[in-house]
Amino acid sequence: MHRLERESGFYFDMKYLEDMVLRGKWDETERYLSGFTHFYGNTISDVCLWIRAQEYFEAIENDDSDKASGILMNNLKFLASRRKGLFESMEQLFKSENKKEHILYSQYKGTEVGRILTMDHVKKDIEADSLLSGKLKFPINQSNSWKWQHRHCIHPNPIINTLFVDHVCQPQYNLSIAQPAVKKSIATSLVTYPGQSHISVPIPDDIPKTLARTLNEESSPMSMDFHPVLQTHLLVGTCAGSIGLWNVSSGKKLLSVNFKVLDIGACSTTFKEALLENPLVSVNRIMWSPDGLFFGVAYSKHILQVFSYSGGHEVWLKLETDAHVGNVNDLAFTVHHRQLLVITCGSDNKTKVWDVHDGTNVFTIGDHGAAVYSVCPHTKKVFHYVFSTFVDGKMKGWLYDNNNKFVIAVFDYDTPGLGCTKLAYSTDGQRLFSCGTNINGQSFLIEWDESEGTIKRTYQGLTQNSLSVVHFDTTKNQFLAAGDNHIIKFWDMDKVELLGTIDVEGGLPEKPRIRFNKEGTLLAISANENRIKILATDCGLQLLQTPENGAGVPLRSIAWDCLEILIA
């Protein structure tokens, strides 16, 4: 199958490539890539660098000088003309008497984490490559050019759309009499009315539906996020303000942090008075940075905290600020000109942007005239946007100018129902969705046409008498999921009808929180009695059975920093 993919060039299987990289099958990795584009062309040269550099470090790690020499002089020789400084550094590492104390290797922490980081870089470069980005989705050939398959069939008039699926012609029947009964049967099985809890349609296998783990938190989970690299690591923020980091593979909690303001003297009088009046603080949003080296926490009273994480059982407070008056409703990370920023919004009608490394408030957008409910950054080619939604149902888009400021809103829309709404993009960043609930309990799940500012699709099946806001997520550029009416509901992005539902054992709250991991193989769901249910696909179950990743191992090393700087 993979030889067919490589030779036809129709479809690039990222999961297969990832399996090869994580297993260290370097020859097959390069052979597979070479079928799609010349291995030294375009951004594939960067993919080549990450793969061969990892192979080189592993040879050094195993004290295999002959292999390291061969990789350096044969596989990495192309760097001599293109990135002379990097090639010379690798030569110096090889010639060093004590290689493992060389600066380029000294912080390298082993094969497993190195391969995970390599694959993370490889994915980003492949998704950015113009020759490959269009081949990451399984193709549907609309032509009728595969009729050679028809020689196996005994019935005429084949409809053959693709070489990748076996074709079998079906006998042609006259359906004119049976048609009404067929329609009735389909309607009975597919239509779901408000308040229904089941739908008799099999859910696709690439949606997590097998209960794999149950995690027990001390307080009710309010926000969750899977680590972007260590995909079995789940971050949880609770209604009591505590933070938990779980290794879902083992079912063990790696660390727990209770809410505490490190520098209360730097906080505003308003915050101190609010805390004195009511000391209870909840987590509104918790989120990893894109590289997984930091995570941010937005609290229900004023405070934004950003922690650094290098693996294992410890975190360090990187940034603490009295960000907003009242609730910090949401946060999101974005990278602009290689500067890591965290964006927050709050009940004080403002959206603020912070530099993660020095804690400065880079700039403020507002006053908006209404509390800002959520933020969603987005990059399109060279343009950097931030979308904001408001409790009055407005949605605005802001654009960076050349001076790292925002120009006036580039669009201003009304969301359906004028309710509290959150936004999310598909994994590839090409499609924008929103889900919101208004004060009358009406909920709306929408796909937007960004260019026109219009609603492209309104998905069916949400309950229309909600007591709280519906939470949703996207996965695999194909599916939407929402926690509604004590169950989890799923949609195909291209169809407005409800695809199916899952009722999790042990019971769910009315509006459960949900979160997919990066690959969509795991789904975390907040359940009754402070529990978190982990659903998995077959691939997710395999992921949970692999040895624990990242415990006690730094995620970023000096070696990779040097490589990134030299590549840039």
UniProtKB/TrEMBL annotation:
Family annotation (Pfam families): TPR1-like_2nd, WD40
WD repeats by residue range: 321-364
PROSITE patterns from the UniProt entry: CTLH, WD_REPEATS_1, WD_REPEATS_2
Keyword Repeat annotated: yes
Cited SUPFAM superfamilies: WD40 repeat-like
Keywords, alphabetical: Repeat, WD repeat
Gene Ontology biological process terms in this record: regulation of DNA-templated transcription
InterPro entries on file: CTLH_C, Topless_fam, TPR1-like_2nd, WD40/YVTN_repeat-like_dom_sf, WD40_repeat_CS, WD40_repeat_dom_sf, WD40_rpt
Coiled coil feature spans: none
Location of the CTLH domain: 10-67
PANTHER family listed in its UniProt record: TOPLESS-LIKE PROTEIN, TOPLESS-RELATED PROTEIN 1-RELATED
Name of this protein: CTLH domain-containing protein
Organism: Lithocarpus litseifolius
